[in-house]
Design a protein that fits this description.
By secondary structure, the chain is an all-alpha fold. It has a domain of 119 residues. The chain starts with a helix and ends with a helix.
Length: 207
């Protein structure tokens, strides 16, 4: 029974850690995509650059606000709608500017950067739902409970050792807490918010 418990904890902890790192990677990828798109605006005709740069600044602000409010589904929804509207406007403006330039680089270099910037937001939103099935957490709780019952049964009739009892309880509780903390990195002590500073740096670089 303890072997099964250890196996479930090991696999769940490993998966939670991998998903946490993937979410951090996506934050950096989004910041890089926005920064790349911003730099490649220089390829477009000068008269369209100012409007696009203003749209990019609004979009970066909206994405930062979106990340800040992710813990509140009600408050974040208007920001998500605004981000998508800005994506559509940036794309349509970028396509028109690329056509107007009459050159190859804007269509082959700038537009793919825009496409990547837009696609990464879908990937990031989907990543917030990457969690093990509820059955896995239920199984972990059941195994921990059964393990506690077996431990209590094994100590029955003997002098109770509070150190062993509290140690087992504390160890299982801390492990399960860390796993849940990694699975929901914007809610607990283990946070992915620090990675948002990269996007903030990109926004500050937009002059």
């Amino acid at each position: 029974m303890y072997g099964w418990l250890g196996l479930f904890i090991a696999f769940t902890f490993h998966g939670a850690g991998a998903r946490y790192e993937e979410r951090r990677h996506l934050v950096v990828a989004e910041a890089n995509a926005i920064g790349t798109g911003w730099q490649r605006i220089d390829m477009l005709p000068e008269r369209t650059q100012l409007h696009l740069r203003d749209l990019f600044k609004q979009y970066a602000d909206a994405r930062l606000e979106h990340h800040r409010l992710m813990r509140d589904p009600v408050a974040v929804e208007p920001v998500r709608v605004k981000s998508r509207a800005l994506q559509d406007e940036i794309w349509s403006t970028g396509v028109a500017a690329a056509d107007e330039s009459g050159q190859v680089p804007p269509a082959t270099v700038f537009l793919p950067a825009l496409n990547e910037m837009i696609d990464i937001t879908t990937t990031r939103e989907e990543a917030t739902h990457w969690h093990p099935p509820a059955a896995v957490f239920l199984m972990l709780a059941i195994l921990a409970l059964i393990g506690s019952v077996f431990a209590g049964y094994g100590m029955a009739g003997r002098a109770r050792r509070w150190v062993h009892t509290l140690g087992f309880t504390a160890a299982i509780t801390m492990v399960l807490f860390v796993i849940l903390d990694l699975e929901f990195p914007r809610l607990g002590l283990v946070r992915v918010d620090a990675a948002d500073s990269i996007l903030l740096d990109v926004r500050r670089s937009m002059r």
